Amino acid sequence: MLSFTEKQRFFLDGVIGPFKIYESDEAKEILRKIRRKNLDTSKAIFDNDVNYDRHLDIEELAKHIINPSIIARLADIIGPDILCWRTEFFPKFPGVQGTEWHQVGNYQYANGIPMLEGTLGDDNSIMDLTVWTAFTDTTIETACMRFIPGTHKAKYYDEAKAIHRKETDYSSVLSETSFYGYNFEEFKINPNWLPEEQNHISIEMKAGECIIFTARCVHASHPNISKTFSRFAISARYVPTHVKVYPNSDKFYAHGAWFDLAKYGCVLVSGTDIYHHNRIREKDQNGRNFI
After folding, report:
1. Residue 82 forms beta bridges with which residues?
2. SS3 for 238?
3. Beta-carbon contacts of residue 132 (< 8 Å; ≥ 6 apart)
4. pTM score, two decimals?
5. pLDDT beyond 60 at 52
6. What is the distance between the alpha carbons of residues 129 and 84, in angstroms, rounded to a whole number?
7. What is the DSSP pairing of strand 116-117 with strand 231-240?
8. Which residue, 172, 211, 225, 281, is the most exposed by fewest CB within 10 angstroms?
9. pLDDT at residue 1 above 60?
10. Per-residue model confidence (pLDDT) at position 173
């Protein structure tokens, strides 16, 4: 659980950690299994090249999203009733550019339609938490994460702005900009606001450590300037149960790919769901229970 001081730090900064979740050797062994199983997409719920929601068919990821050390800390921030609504992989290979500065609230940037919708009427509440876990050692040279503490308290980017969204294949959008085909500069509310001139921090991590942040905190990553080292991390994204996920949608477009939600469902990782806004997956694609 988070200490009182740690909770204060999170609500002040919008990010906290790192925390050790796995021993380094254990993390590397988990990564080895995930990378091997990732090659088999026969039971993946989405028919595209984007590594979304593989916790629904890869056992090691299914176990990761319900890790008690993660869930206890999340509950201290958003309460005991928690859904995991997305996982995704973040490899940064040698020479790959960094992810540009960005701020996300309801994930509307992807296609102009909000992917998350809070139902308690408080627009300033923490609606989405990301647990970013490093499965390799992660340094400034190998593309660790960067944050501008405190920026979750104000809006610097407007996801609702009308911009040109590219409809192209995933490999193309990866090479076109540092944010999967989206230029987050276009979402800026004040074009003259320069993130690099703010007081930002870089968080280096050991394999098996995680950080917790709200995507409303402006964040980015360094480029991988190493010659031979690939950085590998996994983001698991969580919301309290009052949040509607993909409201009124049966598919969505993001990052150069279409996602059919026919087999999709959130995973209840803690507590109870009294709202019943979302479809819940109690079992993964292999018939295993999550809890």
Report:
1. 240, 270
2. strand
3. 90, 145, 210, 211, 212, 213, 233, 234, 235
4. 0.94
5. yes
6. 9
7. unpaired
8. 172
9. yes
10. 42
Q: Give 275 or 248, the one with higher predicted confidence.
A: 275
C-alpha pair distances (Å), 227 with each of 102, 141, 222, 224, 232: 27, 10, 15, 8, 15
pLDDT exceeds 90 at position 216: yes
Look at residues 106, 117, 197, 235 and name the one whose alpha carbon lies nearest to residue 158.
Answer: 106
- Is the Cβ–Cβ distance between 206 and 134 less than 8 Å? yes
Query: Over the stretch 65-90, which tens digit does the pLDDT of each residue have?
Result: 999 999 999 999 999 999 999 999 88
Question: Which candidate, 81, 78, 80, 86, places its Cα nearest to that of 104?
Answer: 86
Question: Is residue 221 exposed (0-12), middle (13-18) or buried (19+ Cβ within 10 Å)?
Answer: buried
Contact status, residue 277 vs residue 37, Cβ threshold 8 Å = no
Any alpha helices (H) in the chain, and if so which ranges? 4-13, 24-38, 59-64, 68-78, 170-176
Return the DSSP state at 141: T
**What is the crossing angle of helices 68-78 and 4-13, to 10°?**
70
Complete DSSP assignment for 36-98: HHHT--TT-SS-SSS-B-GGGT-HHHHHHTT-HHHHHHHHHHH-S-EEEEEEEEEEE-TTPPP
Asked if 210 contacts 19 with a C-beta cutoff of 8 angstroms, the reply is: yes
Segment 154-177 mean pLDDT = 65
Question: d(Cα 258, Cα 169) in Å, to the nearest integer?
Answer: 10
Cα–chain center distance at 25:
24
Residue 197 CB contacts under 8 Å (≥ 6 apart), including other chains: none
Query: In residues, how long is the chain?
Result: 291
Any idea which residue has 């360094």 for tokens? 222
